[in-house]
Amino acid sequence: MILETRNLEFSYPDGTKAIDDISIVIPEGKRISFVGKNGSGKSTLFLLLNGTLKPKKGKIIYDGKDVEYSSSGLRDLRKKVGIVFQNSDDQLFAPTVYQDIAFGPTNLGYSKEEVERVVNQMLDHFGIRHLKDKPPHHLSGGQKKRTAIAGVLAMDPEVIILDEPLSNLDPVGADEILDILNELNHMGKTIIISTHDVDLAYAWSDYVYLLSDSRLIDEGSPGAVFSKEEQVRDSSLKNPLILDIYRELEKRWLSTGNGHPKDLPELVRTLRSIDLMRIDISPEVAVGQCVNLGVLFGDYTKEGLYEAVNSRVLFRNDDGTAVVELKRRVLRPGAVYVYNMESFDKDEFETIVKKYDINHIGAMGKLSKDIAENQGIQIVCNSGVIDRSILNAITGSRCLILTSQGMVAHTAKRVRDYIKNSGIRLIFSPIGKGAAEIDYQTQAAGSSSDLDKEI
Amino acid sequence: MRNMDDIALLSPLRYKNTTLKVLLVIFALAAGLLANSPVLPAFILICMIFATLVFGKIPIRLYFKLFLSVLGFIAVSCIILAFFSIGQGGGVLLEIPVFKWMLTVTQGSANLSILIFVRSLSGVSSMFFLAMTTPILELFSYFKRFSFLDVFTELTMLIYRYIFVFLDLLLNIQSAQKMRFGYRNYRSTVYSAGLLVGSLFIQTLEQGDRLYLAMNSRCYDGKLAHYEAKYKISVPDVLLSAVFVFSVIAVFIYSRGIQVF
C-alpha cells in the first residue's frame, strides 16, 4: 500500500466539485489505470496525489504517513510521486532536452557531477542522446513524451503518474511509450495512468478504477470492472473491443473458457476448445464418418507450422459443405526466442539466426530498435511484439524478440505465462549470453521452479 | 516554418566553440569600423560570406534573400549620402541640375559613401555569420559566464521556449480565422486581429499557471539547470582563425589610403 486516499474531497474556487469522497488504496509495483470520460476528475485527482492541490476534506497517505502540506513535506511527496502531464509542451519548459531532464535533479540539490550522471543515464535509457541539445519544439510528439518521462524519472520517484500518456501519439510511438511504462513497472515503479481508451486500460492494467462525475464508481481487476456492461455504458465509455468480440463469439458457441481474454493470443486461445471447420465435402460422405484432410499449414494450423489433420463430420449443409471436428497432430512446433540487444554481438547474433532458423524478428523498446537499425537487422515487427511473436510461433514460425536489459525478464514472463496457461507446445528460450544471464538471475530470484528452459 | 534559430540549430558550425566565434566576429566588426579604405571591409565581407555558406552550409538562396533585404536599405542610404558633398574635398565627379540647384558628388563624398556601404555590409555579413551558426541557446550560456543576472537569463530561457509554443498557437488561430473569412475586409481584419491578440493573452496567462504547476510538481527550488555547450576548440579551427586574423591585419596595413576615386 504505497499511496492511499481517504474520503478525499476537492472543489475548485468557482465551486465546481471535482473530487467527491474518493477513497482508494494503491498497491506498490502495480500498473493502475484510472478510467473515465473527459472531466470525470482524473487530472484533478492526480494533482491531489502529487500534492500540487490541497484537498478540502479527507487526507492522502503515502507509505503509511499522512502527507504534510509544508514545503518540506510536499518536496518529499513530489520526489516520490512524479507526474507526467498530458500536454508535453506544458511539461517541457527548459530550452533544451538536457536542461529539462536536469531540472528535477538540480532542484533536489544534487551535485553538478551527480546531475550530469543522472541525465546521461536517462538520455541513454530513453534513446534520446542525439536530441540532447535540441529545443523541445524541434521534437516529435513521441520524442517529447519520452523526454517528459525522462525528466520525471530523473528524480527517481517510486510512483509515476501519467495523465493520458498515449494521447496524440502515432501507433508505433504509443507502443514505445507503453514499452517504457512496462519496463519501468518491471524495475519496481508503481505506474498510474489515466485514460479513456478502454482497450488500453483493459489490456494493460493490473487494476482499474472507474471514475464518473467526480466519484469513484467501481474498482477491481480489468476483467471484473469491464464485465459490468451497464456501468461502463453509464460512464460514457464503451466496452473493450476484444471483450466485445469474445462475447459475440461466446454467444455463437465459437469460444469458451477464459472469460476475459486480454489480448489477441488469449482471444485466439478461447477459440480452441471446439475445433471446428467448414469444408467442402463429396455427397457420399455421411455424418459421423472420418475424412482425412492431410497436412494443413499456414492459417489453417493451430499449434505448429504443419499439422496432420483428421476430421469427423458433425453436420452437413445443403450447399455441399460440412462442419467437421478436427483432430490435429503437430508436425513441428514454433518457437519464441528473446535476445538482449544491450550485449549485442554481431557474430553471435548471426549464428543464432542461422542455427535456430529464425524467420520473424521483432524489436521492442527504443534502444533495441536503434541498435537493430544501426546493425542493419531487418525487423518485421515493431509494435505489439510479444503478442505477434506468440501468434506467429503458434503458426510455426521461429520468432526472435530483440529487446534490452530490463525487458528480457518481462518478455520471458509473458511468454512463459502464456505457454503455461494455454498448454500449447511452443519452444521458448532466452538466447545469447546477455539474455540467458538475466533470465537465469531472475528465475533464481523468483524461484519459479516449474519452468524448464525449454518447454 | 523556418526561422533564424532553426537555421543555426542545423548548421554544422553550431558545434564550434562559441567563444571563438564571438571573438572572431567582434574582431571583424572592429576591423571593419577602423578601416579607412573600402578594401578591408570588402575583404571581410567576402571571408564572412564564404565562411557562412561553405563552412556553415547555409542554403545560398536563403542567405542572399536575407542579405538582399538589408542590401536595399544600405544602398539607398549610401546613394543619398554621396550627394552630401559640402565640406568634402576633391574634384567634382557628377553634377545633376535640379531646377536652379545643383546636386553634386565630389571625390570625397563618393569615397565616403562607398566606405560606409562596404563597412555596413561587412558588419551585416559578420552578424549573419554569428546568427546563422550560433543558436540563441549557446549565446545565453555564453552570457551566463559573464555573471549576467541569473534571473534575467533564466527568464529569457523560459520566454525563448514559449515563444515557439505561442508562435504555433498564433498561426493556428490565424489560419482558423482565415478559413472562416476572418480577414475579408478592413472591419473584419481589425475584429479578428483583436480576438487573436485577446485569446493569445489569455492563453499566455494560463500557460503561466501551467508552467508554475509543472515546475512545482518537479520540486522547483529556484534553480534552473544551466546549459553548457562544451564545444572544444580544435587545432584546425585555431589555425584557420589565425589565418583570418593575420590576413585582416595584413590587408589593413597594405590597404591604408587606397581609395576608389
Tell me which protein chains meet in the greatest interface and how many residues each side has.
Answer: A-B, 38 and 33 residues
Give the N-to-C terminal Cα separation of chain A: 36 Å
Helix/strand class of chain B: mainly alpha
Mean pLDDT of chain A: 84
Low-confidence stretches of chain A: 447-455
* Strand arrangement across the biggest beta sheet of chain B: 1-2
The portion of residues assigned to helices of chain A is: 25-40%
How is the secondary structure organized here?
The complex is a heterodimer of chains A (455) and B (261).
Chain A: E1 3-11, E2 17-26, E3 31-35, H1 42-49, E4 57-62, E5 65-66, H2 71-80, E6 81-84, H3 88-91, H4 97-107, H5 112-125, H6 141-153, E7 159-163, H7 171-186, E8 190-195, H8 198-204, E9 207-212, E10 215-220, H9 222-227, H10 229-234, H11 241-251, H12 264-270, E11 276-280, E12 290-297, E13 306-316, E14 321-330, E15 335-340, H13 346-355, E16 360-363, H14 366-374, H15 385-394, E17 398-403, H16 405-422, E18 427-431, H17 433-446
Parallel strand pairs in A: 3-8, 3-9, 6-7, 7-8, 15-17, 15-18, 16-17
Antiparallel strand pairs in A: 1-2, 1-4, 4-5, 9-10, 11-14, 12-13, 13-14
Helix pairs in contact in A: 4-5, 4-6, 6-7, 7-16, 16-17
Chain B: H1 4-10, H2 18-34, H3 39-55, H4 60-82, E1 92-98, E2 101-106, H5 107-133, H6 136-145, H7 150-179, H8 186-216, H9 235-254
Helix pairs in contact in B: 2-5, 2-9, 3-5, 3-9, 4-5, 6-7, 7-8
Describe, in plain words, how this protein is organized in 3D.
- The complex is a heterodimer of chains A (455) and B (261).
- Chain A is an alpha/beta fold and 455 residues long.
- Helix content of chain A is 38%, strand content 25%.
- Chain A is built from 17 helices and 18 strands.
- Chain B is mainly alpha-helical and 261 residues long.
- Chain B contains nine helices and two strands; from the N terminus they run H-H-H-H-E-E-H-H-H-H-H.
- In chain B, a hairpin with a 2-residue loop joins strand 1 (92-98) and strand 2 (101-106).
- The longest helix of chain B has 31 residues, at 186-216.
- The mean pLDDT of chain B is 85.
- The interface between A and B is large, with 38 and 33 residues.
